[in-house]
Amino acid sequence: MNQEPDGLRQLVLEVLGLTLLAAAAITIAAFNVFGEMTAEAQRALLFSLSALGLCTIPILAFVAWRMSGLARQNRQLFSRATQDGLTQILNKTAFRTGVEAEIMRGPRRIEDSRPYTLLIIDADHFKKINDRLGHATGDVALVAIARMLKRSVRKDDIVGRIGGEEFAILLKGAGLEEARLVAERLRASIECLSVGPKGRAAQLSVSMGGLTFVGAPPYEALYRTADANLYRAKKNGRNRVDITSAVRTARPLGHQKGATAALARTIG
Predict the structure, then answer these.
(1) What pTM was estimated for this model as a whole?
(2) For the chain, which terminus, N or C, has the lower number of CB atoms within 10 Å?
(3) From CA 165, how far away is CA 153, in angstroms rounded?
(4) Helix (H, G, I), strand (E, B) or coil at 200
C-alpha cells in the first residue's frame, strides 16, 4: 500500500508528458497550416495551448481521486482476504503464508539461522463459555484473547487465528528459553481476563504447545509437532505451556536443503 504515492506521481508525470506532446503537436500543426504566423494566428495558438493546459488540471484531479478510491478499495479487499473478521488478526491462510515467507527468507546455511518458535494457543473450556453465557460472550472472549496476544508480543512477530478458538504465533529470533518465558507471560496475562456479566463471569485461560526450530522445515511438520505439544498441555491439566525444541547444537547441519529435510523428519 506504500506504492500508492509512487503510482500517483508516475501517473501525473505521464499525463503531463502527454500534455506536452499534445502541445507540441498543436504548435507544429499550426505552423504547417498557417505558415507565417500572423498576430491573430498567434493568439489562436496561445489560446489553444492555454485551454489544453487548463483541461489537464481537472483531468489530473479526477485521476488522483479515482486512484485514491481504488487504493482504498484494494486495502479493504486485502484486509478481508488476510484478516479474521472477528478478531482482526491474520486468518489461517494468511498466517501460514506469513510464516512460510518469513522462514524462507533466512540464511542459506542452517547453522547461521536464527531460531523461531511456533506457538499454538487454544482457549480452555471454550464450549462451556458458549453454552453457559452464549456465543456472543464467546466472541468477546476470542477478541479479548486475540488482543492480549497481539499487544504482548513484538511488533514483527506473526499472530493469527487458525481455528475456532485456536490461535498461533511465530516468535522471531526466540530460542527455547525465551519462548518459554514469553509463553508463560502470555498464559498468565490471559488468566487475568474474564468475560460475561458480573456474578456469572467466566475466567479465561489458554493452553499452549510450541516448537523451537531453525531453517525452513515444512509448515505441516511444524504445526503437527506444536499441536501435539498443545495436546499434551491439555492432557496434563490445561492452563499450561509445553514447548520442545528441534534445534540440534552438537554439530552444524550443513546446507539448508539437506538440513531442513533432516529437521522435518525429526519433528514430523
Answers:
(1) 0.71
(2) N
(3) 19
(4) coil
Instruction: Give the pLDDT confidence score for residue 101 in this predicted structure.
Output: 95
Residue-level pLDDT at 267: 58
CA distance 135 to 126: 10
With beta carbons less than 8 A apart as the criterion, state whether 182 and 225 touch: no
Query: By C-alpha distance, which of 157, 213, 217 is closest to 185?
Result: 157
CATH architecture of the domain covering 92-267: 2-Layer Sandwich (3.30)
- Identify each DSSP E strand in the chain by its residue range: 116-123, 158-161, 166-172, 194-195, 202-203, 206-213, 241-245
Reported confidence tier of residue 252, pLDDT bands at 50, 70, 90: very low
Percent of the chain with pLDDT over 70: 88
Burial of 26 (0-12, 13-18, 19+ CB in 10 A): middle
Domain ranges of the chain: 4-82, 92-267
> 45 and 26 in contact (C-beta within 8 Å)?
yes
- Identity of the residue numbered 157: D
DSSP single-letter state for residue 201: -
Give the residue from 192, 211, 218 showing the smallest Cα distance to 203.
Answer: 192
The answer to whether the beta carbons of residues 41 and 30 sit under 8 Å apart is: yes
- DSSP class of residue 255 equals B
What is the set of active-site residues?
Answer: 165
In tens, the pLDDT along 210-241 reads 999 999 999 999 999 999 999 999 999 999 99
Q: What angle do CA 231, 235, 236 make, to 5 degrees?
A: 120
pLDDT at res. 259: 44
Give, for 221, the enclosing helix (H) or strand (E). helix 219-235
**Mean pLDDT estimate for the chain:** 86
